[in-house]
Write a structure and sequence with these properties.
The chain has six helices and no strands.
């Protein structure tokens, strides 16, 4: 490499090249001898001068002769000197022009040397920048390789954690599925328990109702027995009253017979009249008995009709109650069915939400699998691109080393060529070959830099894709975790909804199971009402017939009483003798009538009491007949309650076992979810660190790409600077060759100028000596 002293040496050389010819010319002019030439009269001039020299004078004749000869010589010499002077002027002009051109070329050489120095300094700076950039690139590559190693180590650390997390999530999902199945079993068992409790409640209610009905029936039987006892007592009293009345009637009849026997003597007419009266009275008694029976039949039938009407009203009330119960039950069933539809809709919505959640979870899992595959493929492609980039960078280093070697060889050859002053054609050929090789290597370096830039761009794109895929994977994993967390509440909602649906269906089933009994009760009540209505219609018909018979009997009694009154009205016309007897008979008849009336009343009371006793016995018999069925109902209800209680106990044991199992599963799920949370806590910082490393890799690769772009730019600038240097060196060489050629021409011209100057000086010297050549 040239330095500033070389410039001074070159300047001194150029100055010497310019000054030396002048000095030589001057020396030739100044050091020339005084001889004007070798002409024939040289000795004369010298003789003239020399002869007078030692005396300080000149010979006159010789001086004149010499002056004449010298005047001719001077004229001839002056004539010769004019073209020589022109030649001298021409040569001086050419030398001046050549000196000016040499000075200009020297200035250009100085400028070229300055430009070469600047170019060499620029090349040194560019080489330093290039080396520094290459060192930075190497450091960046080492940092990038370390980051890739860190990423690989982090991925190696993260992969088993993700696999462990996936396994834990799968295990947790299996536990959730098992827990859901156990919860469903619990819900089913709870439904069975609820249904059994509902059935138990219904059975207990039925048992209570049967027990209450049995108690009511027993109370009714006891009450009926008490009433029967009272009625039997009243009937016994009525029988006793009948016996007493009959005895009194018999005594009155005996007394009447006695009185009548005593009154026989009153006359046969009276007896005959009395016989008619007796016959009429007998007929009246028979008619009164018929009327009394008819009258008795009417109240009894009216009582039966009233009882039948009361029973009909009771049955109608029961029918209305049964119909109302059936209507209410249908309303309950309709309401329960509406609630069931709402619950089924809620259960369907919950199931649909679970299905959507499961579908979303499956889609997210598929997306995660796809993203992992894409990340693996992208990482493999990153490694492949990184391998290609490393290979290309190694090849670039070899090419740059080759280029540096060629540049050193070219610089060495250039230095040798400069030392040889452009005469080393073999060295120039070698330099040209080296320069051709250097151009080829530069093109290869440019192509390799372009390839490296492309690979770095691809690598940056792939790293960006990997970072984006990792971001998407993290988002999908978070979405999967959120969906998995939503699964349990949704499953619980579905389980609750299904339990509510099952409970409502059991309730509807229970309500529908009560419908046949209620419908049977309604049908039975309606049939009882219809039957009772038939009985009431028959009793009313019988009551109407009895009332008609009573009216007819009353009419007959009234007619017979008229007959008796007419016959008795005829008695006062009989003899006065029978008045006392008749009075006594009448009194006895009155007394007998009272006794008979008392007897009739007692008989009626006896009949009523007997009828009441028989009716009460029939009612008691009916109640007692109903008692075994009610007792059987109570026993069956109690047995059903006991069976249902036993079933509920077994279901409760199953429920306890399932609850214990579900508790264990929930603990396992809780433990597994805690493990998943722990793994997520471990995976999250690793993923964040991986993202940071990927970001650092992207930043480093971007910096590497920028540095390689700078290196490529520096290579281009260095190549251009070297080309400029070679151009300047070629110009410098050309200028040096021109300067050397001009120096040679100047030397030649100076030699000619010296010769002409010598001739002119000789002529001038001869002229100065007066034409003497001496």
């Amino acid at each position: 490499m040239r330095t500033s002293p070389s410039k001074s040496v070159l300047s001194r050389r150029l100055a010497a090249a310019v000054v030396l010819p002048g000095l030589l010319t001057s020396s030739l002019v100044l050091i020339q001898p005084a001889a004007a030439g070798t002409s024939a009269n040289a000795g004369i001039c010298n003789g003239v001068v020399n002869q007078q020299a030692h005396r300080g004078g000149v010979q006159e004749n010789l001086l004149k002769a010499a002056a004449k000869k010298n005047a001719d010589v001077i004229a001839r010499l002056q004539a010769e000197r004019a073209p020589l002077q022109e030649e001298k002027d021409r040569l001086n002009a050419e030398i001046a022009a050549l000196d000016a051109e040499s000075a200009r070329l020297a200035e250009e050489v100085v400028e070229l040397e300055d430009a070469l120095a600047v170019a060499e300094s620029g090349i040194v700076k560019l080489t330093g920048d290039k080396d520094a950039t290459q060192a930075t690139i190497d450091a960046t590559k080492a940092s990038l390789a370390k980051l890739h190693d860190d990423v690989a180590a982090l991925v190696a650390e993260l992969t088993p954690l993700q696999e462990e997390k996936a396994a834990a999530e799968a295990a947790a999902e299996d536990l959730r599925v098992e827990a859901a199945a156990v919860a469903q079993d619990i819900a089913g068992t709870q439904d069975s328990i609820d249904a059994a409790n509902a059935e138990l409640l219904a059975l207990e209610l039925a048992a209570a109702e049967a027990t209450e009905a049995l108690a009511d029936k027993e109370a009714e039987i006891a009450d009926a027995q008490d009433q029967l006892t009272v009625l039997e007592t009243a009937a016994a009293e009525a029988v006793a009253d009948v016996v007493s009345a009959r005895e009194a009637v018999e005594a009155a009849e005996v007394e009447l017979d006695r009185l009548e026997a005593a009154g026989v003597t009153a006359g046969e007419a009276l007896q005959a009249q009395q016989d008619l009266v007796d016959a009429a009275r007998l007929a009246l008694t028979e008619l009164e008995d018929v009327a009394a029976e008819a009258d008795t039949a009417v109240p009894a039938k009216a009582t039966e009709v009233a009882a039948a009407q009361d029973r009909l009203e009771v049955l109608q009330a029961e029918a209305r109650a049964a119909a109302a119960a059936l209507t209410a039950k249908n309303v309950q069933i309709t309401s329960a069915e509406e609630e069931l539809e709402n619950l089924q809709a809620a259960a369907a919505a919950a199931a649909e939400a679970i299905e959507v959640n499961a579908h979303s979870l499956t889609g997210v899992a598929a997306d995660i699998t796809t993203l992992i595959k894409q990340i693996d493929a992208a990482n493999a492609e990153v490694l492949a691109r990184q391998s290609e980039l490393t290979t290309a960078q190694n090849e670039l280093g070899q090419l740059q080393l080759t280029r540096s070697t060629l540049e050193a060889d070219i610089a060495d050859l250039t230095a040798k060529i400069e030392k040889a002053n452009g005469s080393a054609n073999g060295l120039i050929s070698q330099r040209n070959a080296k320069q051709t090789q250097l151009a080829t290597v530069n093109r290869q370096i440019t192509d390799k830099n372009a390839l490296i830039s492309g690979l770095q761009g691809d690598l940056a794109t792939l790293n960006t894709q990997v970072a984006a895929l990792n971001t998407q994977l993290l988002a999908k994993q978070q979405e999967s975790s959120a969906l998995q967390q939503q699964a349990a509440p949704l499953q619980a909602t579905l389980t609750a909804a299904n339990a509510a649906v099952s409970l409502k269906e059991a309730e509807i089933t229970a309500l529908e199971s009560e419908l046949p009994a209620l419908e049977g009760a309604v049908t039975k009540a309606n049939n009882a009402v219809a039957d009772q209505q038939v009985v009431l219609d028959g009793l009313q018909q019988e009551l109407e017939a009895a009332q008609e018979d009573a009216s007819v009997a009353a009419a007959d009694v009234a007619a017979q009483e008229d007959v008796v009154k007419n016959l008795e009205a005829a008695l006062p016309g009989l003899t006065q003798g029978v008045d006392d007897a008749q009075r006594a008979i009448a009194d006895q008849e009155d007394d007998l009538e009272q006794k008979r009336s008392t007897l009739e009343s007692a008989q009626e009371a006896e009949v009523l009491a007997a009828a009441a006793v028989e009716k009460k016995k029939a009612d008691l018999s009916t109640l007692q007949e109903q008692l075994p069925a009610l007792q059987a109902n109570v026993d069956a209800a109690n047995e059903a309650v006991a069976g249902k209680t036993s079933q509920i106990g077994a279901l409760n044991l199953i429920m306890d076992d399932l609850v214990t199992r579900l508790g264990g599963l929930n603990e396992d799920i809780k433990s597994k979810e805690a493990e998943i949370v722990t793994l997520q806590a471990r995976v999250a910082p690793l993923l964040e660190q991986l993202n940071q490393l990927n970001a650092e890799i992207s930043t480093t690769e971007a910096a590497l790409k920028d540095l390689q772009s700078q290196l490529t730019t520096l290579d281009g600038q260095l190549t251009a600077a070297q080309e400029t240097l070679r151009t300047l060196e070629a110009q410098k060489k050309a200028n040096k060759d021109t300067v050397a050629t001009q120096k040679a021409v100047v030397i030649g011209l100076q030699a000619q100028l010296g010769a002409v100057q010598a001739q002119i000086n000789a002529i001038d010297g001869t002229i100065a000596l007066g034409g003497c050549a001496v």
